[in-house]
Specification:
The protein is 0% helix and 56% strand. The chain has 160 residues and is mainly β. The chain has an eight-stranded antiparallel beta barrel. Strand 4 and strand 5 form a beta hairpin.
């Protein structure tokens, strides 16, 4: 196993920023999303606490190796949850990773998934694949923007 720093794109896992004074905001969804859906925007900051690459196959960087990441989630400077993601290398040279993650928040959990291509773009959208608690039946996406090697700005666009 080798320890690596979170790459800016993988500052996904997907997941994050708290803009000064930014609060949780809810809005009605437009007719394009359906009459019974509502949209919710949440902005958080994700700060990586741990990361580890797991060498699962051939010795060295190869298909199937995993990148495991843990992050704390903050809103207005206060810790409000955490995020865990596991990315599996599905292509080598250029690298691609299939990432699955869970955001644990006070009102429930939100799950996400993304296929990441490296080198990464400056921002990535992670599909919201579901949730629990207040986020039961959630859809939408999480827009992630790197803010250094161990911090990300996250904007959740949740539909239900």
């Amino acid at each position: 196993m080798r320890k690596i720093h979170l790459r800016p794109l993988i500052a996904v896992a997907a997941a994050a920023l708290v803009l000064a004074g930014t609060q949780l905001a809810s809005a009605s969804a437009g007719s394009a999303q359906g009459a019974h859906q509502r949209a919710e925007i949440i902005q958080l900051v994700a700060k990586q606490t741990q990361s580890q690459t797991v060498d699962t196959g051939h010795k060295g960087h190869s298909l199937g190796d995993e990148l495991v990441i843990a992050e704390d989630l903050y809103q207005n400077g206060k810790k409000v949850g955490d995020h865990a993601v596991v990315c599996t290398y599905v292509h080598i040279g250029p690298d691609s990773l299939q990432c699955l993650g869970t955001f644990a928040l006070p009102q429930g959990q939100i799950t996400g998934q993304a296929l990441l291509h490296l080198p990464s773009h400056s921002a990535v959208d992670v599909a919201i694949t579901g949730g629990s608690g207040s986020y039961n039946g959630a859809g939408g996406y999480v827009h992630t923007v790197p803010a250094g090697t161990t911090e990300r700005h996250l904007t959740f666009h949740i539909t239900r």
